[in-house]
């Protein structure tokens, strides 16, 4: 019997979950939600976003309810096309202001936790909204965020998995609130709301707090 922490993850599926996974892939393929030329896309992206681990993230997010998971997947594919996520994954996102932006809204990966997950840290107390938006825009911040998500899936998870000897699928997010007040949240609420929606809807089950 799989432990609660690993239930529904690769290598820890019940017979029923394994059957649902097969059904999910077959239906996505039949309906064109996994492209016929997926191998070419995988090669362009540098990682397989149609693999078992990814499919299971969507199934876990919808408690292995195939119609609900399929709707979530379809919405994700639509978003990726509209946002340009595959292009960002394949070509990167040019963000020359990154070093300066990090002075006024630090967001970065730093080492791993005891489970081998990458640690992602945001220091909200150092936020200076006026200087931040003199350097960049919310749209560019979100594109950079998506670029980091894609690197996380395509590079960081693989590197961490290799380092600890088992599959790493999630990061651990730390929100550093030292010197942060309510006004700090209010100043970036639109960005935080948009960023949270992207994470919850399109990079499902990839972060923990």
Automatic annotation (TrEMBL):
Pfam families: CRAL_TRIO (PF00650), CRAL_TRIO_N (PF03765). Gene3D superfamilies: CRAL-TRIO lipid binding domain (3.40.525.10), N-terminal domain of phosphatidylinositol transfer protein sec14p (1.10.8.20). PANTHER family: CRAL-TRIO DOMAIN-CONTAINING PROTEIN YKL091C-RELATED. This is Uncharacterized protein.
């Amino acid at each position: 019997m799989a432990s609660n922490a690993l239930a529904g993850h690769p290598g820890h599926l019940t017979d029923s979950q394994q059957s649902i996974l097969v059904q999910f892939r077959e239906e996505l393929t039949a309906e064109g939600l996994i492209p016929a030329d997926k191998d070419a896309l995988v090669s362009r992206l540098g990682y397989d976003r149609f693999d078992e681990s990814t499919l299971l993230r969507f199934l876990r997010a919808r408690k292995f309810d195939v119609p609900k998971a399929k709707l979530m997947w379809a919405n994700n594919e639509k978003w990726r096309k509209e946002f340009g996520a595959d292009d960002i994954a394949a070509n990167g996102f040019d963000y020359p202001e990154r070093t300066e932006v990090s002075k006024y809204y630090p967001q970065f990966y730093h080492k791993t936790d005891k489970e081998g997950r990458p640690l992602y840290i945001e220091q909200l107390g150092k936020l200076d909204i006026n200087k931040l938006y003199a350097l960049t825009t919310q749209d560019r911040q979100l594109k950079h965020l998506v670029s980091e998500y894609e690197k996380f899936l395509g590079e960081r998870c693989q590197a961490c998995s290799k380092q600890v000897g088992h599959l790493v699928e999630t990061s651990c997010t730390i929100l550093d609130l030292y010197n942060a007040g309510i006004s700090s949240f209010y100043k970036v609420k639109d960005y935080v709301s948009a960023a949270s929606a992207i994470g919850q809807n399109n990079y499902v089950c990839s972060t923990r707090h």
